[in-house]
Amino acid sequence: MKTKQKTLPPLKAIRKHCLECVGDCREDVRRCTGTDCPLWPYRFGTNPNRKTMSAEEKAKRSRSLNRPRKPK
Ligand code: SF4
User: Fold this and answer.
1) Opening angle at CA 40, ends 29 and 45, nearest 5
2) Ligand 1: does its nearest atom lie under 6 Å from the Cβ of 40?
3) CB of 39 sitting under 6 A from ligand 1
4) Is residue 43 part of a domain?
5) Hey, which of 14, 51, 54, 66 has its CA 20 to 30 A from 41?
C-alpha cells in the first residue's frame, strides 16, 4: 500500500535538506562553506535571483487584483 508523501515547495525542500546536511543547526546553514554545492545560493529557502517588488509596484498590482472583472 502506498502512503501519500507530503511534498514541499522546492525552496522549502532545499532549506530542509540544508538543515539536515548540517545537523539541524540554522547557524551552521548560514555559515556553510560549501560554495561549490549547487544548493548553496538557496540554502536560506529563498531565491536570491528573484527581484523584490517596490512598494509602488505592490500597490499597482493590488489595485489591479481588486478591480472588478468585466463580465464575458
Ligand atoms: S549548501 Fe550544500 S553543503 Fe551547504 S548546507 Fe546546503 S546542502 Fe549542505
Assistant:
1) 65
2) yes
3) yes
4) yes
5) 54
Contacts 24+ apart (CB under 8 A), 47-52: 47/11
Going residue by residue through the chain, which has 72 residues, state the pLDDT in tens, using 9 for 90 and above: 677 888 999 999 999 999 999 999 999 999 999 999 999 999 999 999 988 889 999 999 999 999 888 887
Which structural domain range is residue 46 located in? 10-66
Whole-model pTM over 0.90: no
Q: Is residue 24 part of a domain?
A: yes
Domain count, the chain: 1
Residue 72 resides in a domain:
no
CA distances (Å), origin 22, targets 10, 19, 33, 36: 19, 6, 11, 16
Residue nearest atom 3 in ligand 1 by C-alpha distance: 34
Q: Read off the C-alpha cell for 23.
A: 545537523
